[in-house]
Amino acid sequence: MTLIAHAIAPVPRSSLKGGEGLRGRPLSWSGAGDIGLWSTQWDPADKLDRNDALEHHRLLERICAVQPCLPVRFGTAFASDDAARASLAGRVDELRAALDRVAGKSELAVTLLWAKNSGASAPRPPDPATGPGRRFMEERLSRHASREARKARAAELVECLVAELSVERALVWHEICASEAVAVSLAVLIPSERAAERKAVLERLAGRFNDVVGVVNGPWPPYSFATAESSVDSAPRGRT
Amino acid sequence: MDVDPDQVEQGLAKLVLALVEFLRQLLERQAVRRMEGGTLSDDEVERMGLALMRLEQKVQEMARGFGIDPSELNLGLGPLGNLI
């Protein structure tokens, strides 16, 4: 019997013990010091499917509703209770700090998609007098310039969102220009009781940008903040 | 661990072609910078452009030969993002 992991949490004070995990199977607790791991007892012969992924999300919402938790990536498995404990044992302090960061908070996710033709200038018609090599290089020059301009604009958009949110920068994660269509992916931790209000603020703000289309999702468990980091600086975390 | 022996060749080809494409793009960026900086003669720009264009075409052709969509020639580096 293996364990399919769901979330790292402080020692449970709640009624989750004895509860049900995936497919109605017992929810299991593997403790290490004053933290531990919620998981489902699982027969390795059973394949996980899409419904299990959705159930994992619902379980995380249940756990997060009653105690701080760090979601574990769906499908993470441990061979035994001892293996689960061992995975936590050397990181208890880091994980406790990460749990303190997410306590009482929910995640809102903002995705800004480039509006059609935003920032894209029409390519210059090729000069018939130039050779194919130079035309190739000029096209690439124009493509690189356009990409750099988009990156700069995406960074500006992140600054606007962060300024509007007025939260500690350590509570914001972002990534810019992760794909052709996406300008900004941003996640923010918000006190759970203010999540609906902040979501409305973000939706209004995203609607004011002309060159992107905004989508705001959540609140949901702190998926983007599940990594334990020993130090948190004051800069917004993310990739640019 | 699930390993499909039939996919090994394609997986290896994808890894090698992704690295080649990564190096090609590095060369391309360097060439574009030098062109912008005016340190390449017209003849050098033309020859560099032709070489990079043909290399790109060749990589794409080889990818299709292995049943790989050229847009998939990238490697996920976990928290660091994608290679390209």
Features:
heterodimer; A: 240 residues; alpha+beta; 2 domains; five-stranded mixed β-sheet; 5 helices; 10 strands; 35% helix; elongated; B: 84 residues; mainly alpha; 2 helices; 67% helix
Descriptive account of the structure:
The complex is a heterodimer of chains A (240) and B (84). By secondary structure, chain A is of the alpha+beta class. Chain A has two domains: 2-102, no CATH class; 105-239, no CATH class. Helix content of chain A is 35%, strand content 27%. Chain A is built from five helices and ten strands. In chain A, strands 1, 2, 3, 4 and 5 form a five-stranded antiparallel sheet that branches. In chain A, strands 9-6-8-7-10 form a five-stranded mixed sheet, with helices on one face. The longest helix of chain A has 34 residues, at 132-165. Chain A starts with a strand and ends with a strand. By secondary structure, chain B is mostly helical. Chain B has a domain at 9-64. Chain B is built from two helices and no strands. In chain B, helix 1 packs antiparallel against helix 2 (42-65). The longest helix of chain B is centred in the first third of the chain and has 32 residues, at 5-36. Chain B starts with a helix and ends in a 19-residue tail after the last helix. The model of chain B has no long low-confidence stretch (mean pLDDT 86). Classes of the chains: A alpha+beta (240), B mainly alpha (84). At the A-B interface, helix 4 of A face helix 1 and helix 2 of B.
E-strand count of chain A = 10
Major β-sheet profile of chain B: none
| Through-space gap between termini of chain A | 42 Å
Order of H and E elements of chain B: HH
Q: Which stretches of chain A of 5+ consecutive residues score pLDDT under 50?
A: 228-236
- Portion of residues in helices of chain A? 25-40%
Report the count of strand segments of chain B: 0
Structural class of chain B: mainly alpha
Q: What is the residue-averaged pLDDT of chain B?
A: 86
Helical proportion of chain B, percent range: 55-70%
Helix and strand pattern of chain A: EEEHEEHHEHEEHEE
| Oligomeric organization of the protein chains | heterodimer
The description of the largest β-sheet of chain A is: 5 strands, antiparallel
Radius of gyration of chain A: 22 Å
Estimated share of beta-strand residues of chain B: under 5%
Total of domains of chain A: 2
Shape of chain A: elongated
Shape of chain B: elongated
